[in-house]
Write a structure and sequence with these properties.
Helices cover 27% and strands 14% of the residues. The chain is α/β, with parallel strands linked by helices. The strands form 4 sheets. The chain has an 8-stranded parallel barrel. It has a 5-stranded antiparallel beta sheet with strand order 12-13-14-18-16. α1 packs parallel to α2, α5 packs parallel to α7 and α12 packs parallel to α15.
């Protein structure tokens, strides 16, 4: 791997802090728990970790409502504990990325509290999107936009004199007011925030809602106001993907380059970018903007070889064509877990989802570019789909009353050991129950069992990561598609390394039979690649 451009083919592990490992017995994961889990991640073989938000927050959206961008919520520890975590990660050669939220903050952020206490037209209100309402006495929102998590995107405030007043914009929940990036003071504040954490030695940032920040300057009505709520995606072209956002990423890239010039350590910016096409996605990773942007099309593709080939080809053509590399993902903290997404029932009694998820993992690790792994995917965890209504914490559920697309099921705390909850996630006398209940069947997926079973998901990921670090054909580079039988997808990397996936349910002859396997997600008879199976081998092509 090119050490200067470590990020181009890195594999990063997403740590959802509150569900990783609890060190205090309060039922919530914390930074000290992450630190104690670093040897496990080092053994797995990842290059870095991305930490979900741990900043002071009222936790209306589990930390994505930030009240203080320069601190640590006592729920997760303190700055000294963060420094200890960062130092331990450096000793193990694991880079640390922080999750930063520049589109919105918490309604308890001091600047928003100041805005509520200030009059219309004040500089304090200019940091956010405040506007007069429409209709008699301003009783109607300024436009017809809907929030992604359900309901109107506007909330009316009570002015300091007690009268009904202006409205403020929130594209997620009322507790998450959107920043107004057309006010220079906002950009200056985030410049200071970046430098605060870079001075503490972080290796970069995952940027939440990276296609957001700027809204259409006139805030006009949308022809499809419920599109964001209906799709649970940032598709309103008036609220997302405005051209000015690219100037922000040029400024942030310049800050990272400044720090890199000081000590030679290249800092990384990776964006959560939801845009209509790979070509539009590519604009975010031009040489002077973000280093990476998550490519979600593979995650969303149906289990079909033609669909996979199409999204991979488009990414390689449009994104890699910028000089960047594609950033592949199969899952994250907002998505249904891969095993469940690919198969039914939820616990995958048929094994179909498990087989497909294993094959997809091996496919992703063979693709050119970088890859991100969400915690628990290396254990093959399924989605927990039967959480009772009274334990659900996702604001989507509380704002819509619907369980559709609720994210708690992929956030259930990890099982580490034992036969019963809390499965080693939290321990000690009087320890609280995990913040979300773990099902009994999590015992089958506990980390200690996974490490002991060489056929487990964990060993599949570990072996794939080890081969990525050892084989020059993998990581950064290009691919060439091979002609295959129906239902099989295969490509070659570098000097004859073949990755093949059988998407069908019956044994199919492999494209290059008889070659010794380097990696496989299941037993492969000579010359045969069983259904929903992937394998790597070296062939003389």
């Amino acid at each position: 791997m090119n050490r200067h451009h470590w990020w181009r083919d890195a594999v990063i592990y997403q740590v959802y802090v509150r569900s990783f490992l609890d060190s205090t017995g309060d039922g919530v994961g914390d930074l000290a728990g992450v630190r104690s889990g670093l040897p496990y991640l080092r053994k797995l073989g990842v290059d870095g970790i991305w930490l979900s938000p741990f900043y002071p927050s009222p936790q209306h959206d589990h930390g994505y409502d930030v009240a203080d961008y320069r601190g640590v919520d006592p729920l997760f520890g303190d700055l000294d504990e963060f420094d200890a975590l960062a130092a331990a990660a450096r000793r193990l050669g694991i880079r640390v990325l922080l999750d930063i939220v520049p589109n919105h903050c918490s309604s308890e952020h001091p600047w928003f509290r100041e805005a509520l206490a200030s009059p219309p037209g004040s500089p304090a209100r200019a940091r956010f999107h405040f506007a007069d309402g429409r209709g008699p006495d301003g009783n109607e929102p300024p436009n017809n936009w809907h929030a992604m998590f359900g309901g109107p995107a506007w909330t009316r405030v009570t002015e300091p004199d007690g009268r009904p007043g202006q409205w403020y914009l929130h594209m997620f929940t009322p507790e998450q007011p959107d920043w107004n990036w057309r006010t220079p003071e906002v950009a200056a504040e985030f410049d200071r925030i970046l430098r605060f954490w870079l001075d503490r030695g972080v290796d970069g940032f995952r940027i939440d809602v990276a296609a957001g920040l700027y809204k259409h300057p006139e805030l006009p009505d949308s022809p499809d106001p419920e599109a964001d709520a209906r799709t649970r995606d940032s598709v309103n072209p008036l609220a997302w993907n405005q051209p000015e956002v690219h100037d922000v990423w040029r400024q942030w890239r310049a800050v990272c380059e400044e720090y890199t010039a000081r000590d030679g350590r290249e800092r990384l910016l990776v964006g959560e970018v939801s845009v209509p096409s790979a070509r539009e996605h590519a604009r975010y990773v031009r040489p002077d903007e973000l280093h990476q942007a998550f490519f979600f099309d593979l995650l969303g593709a149906p289990w079909d070889p033609d669909a996979f080939r199409k999204v991979i080809s488009e990414a390689m053509q449009d994104i890699a064509g910028t000089g960047s590399t594609v950033t592949w993902v199969l899952n994250n903290h907002d998505q249904v877990r891969t095993v469940t997404r690919y198969g039914e029932p939820a616990t995958d009694a048929s094994g179909l989802g498990t087989a497909r998820a294993r094959a997809a993992a091996l496919l992703m690790l063979a693709l050119p570019g970088a890859a991100y792994i969400y915690q628990g995917e290396e254990l093959g965890l399924p989605e927990v789909v039967d959480l009772p209504d009274d334990v659900l914490t996702d604001p989507i559920f509380h704002r819509t009353g619907s369980r559709a697309r609720v994210r708690d099921g992929c956030r259930v705390p990890l099982p580490w050991s034992g036969q019963a909850s809390p499965f080693g996630f939290t321990s000690g006398d009087g320890a609280a129950k995990p913040w979300l209940p773990q099902p009994e069947y999590f015992a089958e997926y506990a980390t200690d069992r996974a490490l002991a079973d060489t056929r487990s998901f964990w060993h599949l990921y570990r072996d794939g990561l080890q081969l990525r670090s050892e084989l020059p054909q993998l990581g950064e580079g290009t691919l060439r598609w091979l002609d295959t039988p129906p239902g099989v997808l295969a490509f070659v990397r570098g000097d004859g390394l073949v990755c093949a996936v059988n998407f069908g349910t019956a044994p199919t002859p492999a494209p290059v039979p008889g070659a010794p396997l380097l990696a496989s997600d299941g037993p492969c008879p000579p010359g045969v690649l069983p259904g929903s199976t992937a394998a790597w081998w070296i062939a003389d092509l």
